[in-house]
Amino acid sequence: MVSSNAAAIPTGVLPDSESALDHVKDAAKMNRKVDEALTAAGLLALQIFVVVVAGVADFHYTPHIGAMEYGFFRDVSLMIFFGFGFLMTFLHSYGLSAIGYCLVISAVVVECSIAVEYLVMDRTSEVTLETLLNGLFCAGAVMISYGAVLGKVTPFQLLSMAAVEVVAFWLNFKWSVTDNVAHDVGGGMVIHTFGAYFGLSVSWWVTQKGAFGHKAEASIYSSDLFSLAGTIILWVLWPSFQAAVAGTEEKQMMAAANTFLSLSSSTLAFAVLSRFLNGGGRFNVVHLQNATLAG
């Protein structure tokens, strides 16, 4: 009797448990398929939007390009597509997503930024290297926000955030720099601060209680190593980011030199303080990844 009762218990329970588990898996698979379809449709819709604006505005390229200006453009491109991508690999479960979606989202943001800048800022239809740089700066703000929502949103949610942020970026830029004549050469307000608070707002909206302390929200040795590669790329190229739109050669030299010295100072400050703040006489890798860029 004991053996028959013991056998009767799992036969009455397991099918229901397996059925519930299968239902959850099926629902998750369906959600992924829906999100994939929405993401593809969203990317296509944004491409159509850019094409329509470009056609109506009759965009055309400037015939002039300077070697120094192109050098700035190349450096900033490396920062956005390589530096931020690898910096975001600090979460070991989302390394491929960090790099892959950094490439995809940044590319679509640059395109949308050209169209939205034309509409919001009432620009001419001439596409210059500065126009492309502005698109990269806008992508930089979105990538800063990306760091706050990494691992918390689906691809379609990430794409939606990026699309909304492009419009918000240019509205904020117009209000602060054009209307109120704010001086913000390095983008401390309209890029870094804006991107950080926009990302924190979205993160607050989408983060669930179960995410706190989740094992996926952590780093390991290899993920920290790749993230440090992104830090170094950003560190080396940051003077170009600051000098790209500084103006005259004198101002560009001042921006590049001041930025380099500030980065060096923040690195030394990290080396002095991190051991004391971290305890145990060791550097904190999070401090190394971020505090060294504070300059």
Can I get a quick summary?
The protein is mainly α and 295 residues long. The protein has 9 helices and 2 strands.
Instruction: Tell the overall outline.
Output: flat
Q: What is the terminal separation in angstroms?
A: 76 Å
What does the largest sheet look like?
Answer: 2 strands, parallel
User: Into which percent range does the helicity of residues fall?
Assistant: over 70%
The largest sheet has its strands arranged as: 1-2
List the secondary-structure elements in sequence, H or E. Answer: HEHHEHHHHHH
Radius of gyration using CA atoms only: 24 Å
**What percent of residues are in strands?**
under 5%
What structural category do the secondary elements indicate?
mainly alpha
- Taking pLDDT < 50 over at least 5 consecutive residues as the criterion, the unreliable ranges are 1-14
Overall mean pLDDT: 87
Count of DSSP-assigned helices: 9
Number of strands: 2
What does this structure look like?
Helix content is 77%, strand content 1%. It has 295 residues and is mainly alpha-helical. Strands 1-2 form a two-stranded parallel ribbon. The chain starts with a helix and ends in a 5-residue tail after the last helix.
